[in-house]
Amino acid sequence: MDKLIMVIGFARYYLVPTAILLGVLIFVHEFGHFIIAKLSGVRVLKFSLGFGPKIIGKKVGDTEYVISVLPLGGYVKPLGESPDEPVAVEDQIGKRLAIIAAGSVFNIVFAWVLFTVIFMVGTPTLLPLVGKVIENSPAQRAGLKEGDLVLSVNAKEIALWDELSQSIEESGGSAMTLRIKRDGQILPVKIEPQISDGKDIFGQAKKGFKIGIVAATGKDAIMIKRFGPGEAVFKGLYQTWNISRLTLLSIFKIIGRTLPADSLGGPIRIAEIAGEFAEAGLVSFFSLMAIISVNLGVLNLLPIPILDGGHIFFILMEAVKGRPLSMKKMEIAQQIGLALIVMLMVFVFYNDIARLIRG
Q1: What percent of the chain has pLDDT over 70?
Q2: Which of 40, 72, 189, 252 has CB atoms 3.0–4.6 Å from 95's, for a disulfide?
Q3: 169 and 209 belong to one structural domain
Q4: Which residues pair with 51 in a beta bridge?
Q5: Res 8 pLDDT > 60
């Protein structure tokens, strides 16, 4: 009985959130390919969620819809994907480019929609409430205390911890006047930020200005910040762009070895994170889904054979040369791309297992 309870708990905490997360994102990606192909007048021979042997399938019209054994991906097979297949549509190259790019575009647009909805529903945000004052810091010398609520910085009202952090960082070390609320009283506090060592989001050392306070994290320190539809759309777009930029930056940093390769995670790590975010609530879970959707969209556009970006590269080469690349060259490139993906998967699985062993 105890083992059964443990298995049910494992499935609820890890497997179900992961299946929902990956299932939705794979469907969105493949639906992008599928719908653009249909709208372009291209026959779609197969729409598969998953790889390998099929579990179930049904043919409707020209298309066979399949759910396959391996859930870590999927594919759409339009007529004309291979150079030896005839395509009875005009502007073959332009339509093929649109079909192949559509998967990534749909993932990125889907993330934008999710972020927009999240901003409208509201996200938990820290108030500028002092949770701890570090010893021998500018804050302690200025007389700040635990429980102080910062109302303004240099006469500019603030409502969020991020606004306080940004004001301190942008001070350049110049003296600041904070207006705080303490025990029902409003008090002015003069403080001079000092430069200190810190780390950026990639864990690399960076200099920044601090005053020596830590945010409070209890119930009283959190507010739900909501935005109207118009502002939420723009904030969602900015968040999508920011995650896209960070994804590319992370890739360059890993290639340049300024970001350790063991920071990469695979399916096991995704399952862990999916369980944690699902447990934290729907807003957290959908935020994770949006982030991974952007990652999936951006990574698929990399010019690596077997990925969508590799197919786009082949089609662009075909447009330049005026004829398709030879089947032999494409097969060799695909084999190299597959080998790279397999090596990457083995590496991230190794990272995941090593992380579990280390606890």
Answers
A1: 86
A2: 40
A3: yes
A4: 70
A5: no
> pLDDT of 20-47, one tens digit each?
888 899 899 999 999 998 888 888 888 8
Determine the 3-state secondary structure of 282 from DSSP.
helix
| Chain centre to alpha carbon of residue 153 | 33
Q: Indicate whether 8 and 44 sit together in one domain.
A: yes
- Whether residue 248 is contained in a domain is answered as no
Please indicate, yes or no, whether the overall pTM of this predicted structure exceeds 0.90.
no
249 within domain boundaries? no
- Residue 261, both tokens: 């390769």
Q: What is the pLDDT of residues 273-305, one digit of tens each?
A: 777 777 777 888 899 899 999 999 998 998 888
Is the pLDDT score of 353 beyond 70?
yes
- Structure tokens, 297: 């969209």
Q: Out of 30, 85, 157, 318, which one is annotated catalytic?
A: 30
Picking from 224, 240, 260, the residue at the C-terminal end of a domain is: 224
Helix, strand, coil % (nearest 5) of the chain?
Answer: 55, 25, 25
Range of the domain at 311: 2-122+270-358
Please indicate, yes or no, if residue 238 is contained in any of the structural domains.
no
Q: Do 97 and 174 share a domain, yes or no?
A: no
pLDDT at 319: 82
Q: Are residues 117 and 107 in the same domain?
A: yes
With beta carbons less than 8 A apart as the criterion, state whether 197 and 207 touch.
yes
Assess if residue 327 is contained within a domain.
yes
Check if 163 is active-site: no
pLDDT at 316: 87
What residues form DSSP beta bridges with 125? 223
Number of Cβ within 10 Å of residue 30's Cβ equals 20
Which tokens is 212 given?
């020596």
